[in-house]
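Open question from group meeting: does this chain pack into something compact, or does most of it stay loose? Before anyone orders reagents, we agreed to write out a predicted structure and look at it together. Recording both the input and the output here so the notebook holds the full record.
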Amino acid sequence: MAKAGTDYERFVLTIQQAILNSEEFSKQKNIKIELNKKIVDNTGTEREFDLYWEYELAGITYKTIIECKDYNSKISVEKIDALIGKIKDLPDIKPVFATKTGYQSGAETKAKHNKIDLLIVREQVEDDWKDKNGHSFIKKIFIRFIALPAPEIINFQTFVDEDWIIKNTNIDTTKPITMQGMNNEIFIYDENKNEQYSLLELSKKTSEDDEEIEKDTYRHIEIFENAYIDYNNVKLKLKKFLFDYIKQNPIESNVEIDITKELIGVIEYINQNKRTAVFKDRIIKNW
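Structure tokens returned:
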């Protein structure tokens, strides 16, 4: 059976590990926090601590423990005394105490005189989303997307320059001229405007001035002085084209971004009067 407080210990571990991982020094050392670490003190007595991590710097090993208490009331001086007694034969340990509610004044004084860092490690509260003047931060962002689909072209006609074709090609103009290909393979070149586009891109040519030839159906006409239609090295001079199209209805979607769901937890450093917020993707100090 798991001992009481395990959930809170794992919560503190998650928050503290995230902060360690955000520090450049910790990244280099790859510091990992251990849960329920057992250490033998100088008298040979085995002591168990809720959280423990260590690292080596310049040949010296630095060790830190955190005792976690998931209480609904403030920590009393007796709890600090218990930690002092637990570590008195472990002189190379840096002690830290964590709770979610706070500390009595006597506990804070005793911890300060014994160099024990006090933390409040907790989930977010409403006041976390206010600045020192009581102004609220933005907690939710609502985004409305409106997409305008390309018009649906239902008819396309070209009008070529027959005289130019007779003079410049061997095409028999008494017979229908066909261009068989994908609409992204047939191109129109408007040399006067220095434009080039495929039939696939015709929908971009629509205009607010286009004529509505019947309900919800519009006609777009382009007239050219010096333009060509080209497919697979077959190039014909173009006098004009027209196409009929149907406008598509806008597609709307709404997205809600709840920033509060990104905030994993908060650490208050009692000795330093500072607070750090741990989000899923970032750490914000002096939150």
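Observations to bring back to the group:
The two ends are 38 Å apart (CA to CA).
The chain is about 15% helix and 45% strand.
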